[in-house]
Amino acid sequence: MTKWLAPLGLLLTWALTLWAYGHLPERIPVHWNAQGVADRYGSRAEVFLLPLVLTLLYSLLALAPRLDPKLREAPRVWPWLTGGVVLTFALLQAIFLYAAWRQVQGEPFPVGRAVLLGVGLVFLVLGLLLPRLPANYFAGVRTPWTLESPRVWQATHRRAGWVFLLLGLLAWGVALAGGQGVGLWLWLAALLLGSLYLLLFSYLAWRRETA
């Protein structure tokens, strides 16, 4: 059943995009600033950009177990990971299309808050999946030290699970607080610090193992 999550998510994304394309005007908002205000308009054909990127990304993830020398076969968590990535893009596309439609109707939509709620959900799901992800060259916390040692990979990804869970909860908190201004920059700073922390953690774990 899980193997169908990604293909169905991709099909849903394209179906939603094609339907929206026929109902949107020629020019639509395609970018919003940190305050949630549309600051760039473009052709409605730009709605196909994200589905095209998603199609390429899905193809890469589907082929990854066959191309990755660290993976002899697709691990059990891989369909969940691939499905999570695809459904994330589907959710973001749905938010973008709905925000564009509301904007052309003259009804502003809190796109920043909606995106943060979606991003928070993504980080929560990844926080549950990362500790189960085996070493590979395509997904996960890939540093020179995690790729060098299976033990360092496992330890780093157990820690990454907690970091991602906290980032997901923080994204939801910022979204509920408005999803703009200082809160948004706070979440971006936390994302950067979390990434640097995992980088340092993997290095120190490798040093301890090789000492």
Q: What do these coordinates show?
A:
The chain is mainly α. Helix 1 packs antiparallel against helix 2 (49-67). A two-stranded antiparallel ribbon has the order 1-2. A hairpin with a 5-residue loop joins strand 1 and strand 2. The chain has 2 domains: 1-108, no CATH class; 110-211, no CATH class. 68% of the residues lie in helices and 6% in strands.
Keywords:
mainly alpha; 2 domains; single chain; 211 residues; 7 helices; 2 strands; globular
Give the biggest beta sheet: 2 strands, antiparallel
- What string gives the helices and strands in order? HEEHHHHHH
Gap between N and C termini, in Å? Answer: 45 Å
Q: What structural class do you assign from the helix and strand content?
A: mainly alpha
**Principal-axis shape:** globular
Helical segment tally?
7
| Fraction of residues in H or I helices | 55-70%
Number of strands: 2
| Order of adjacent strands in the largest pleated sheet | 1-2
Relative strand content: 5-15%
Q: How many domains in all?
A: 2
- Structural Rg: 19 Å
Summarize the structure.
The protein has 211 residues and is mainly α. It has helices spanning 5-21, 49-67, 78-104, 111-129, 144-148, 150-176, 181-210, and strands at 27-32, 38-43. It is 68% helix and 6% strand.
Topology record:
Elements (H helix, E strand, L loop, with lengths): L4 H17 L5 E6 L5 E6 L5 H19 L10 H27 L6 H19 L14 H5 L1 H27 L4 H30 L1
Antiparallel strand pairs: 1-2
Helix pairs in contact: 1-2, 1-3, 2-3, 3-4, 4-6, 6-7
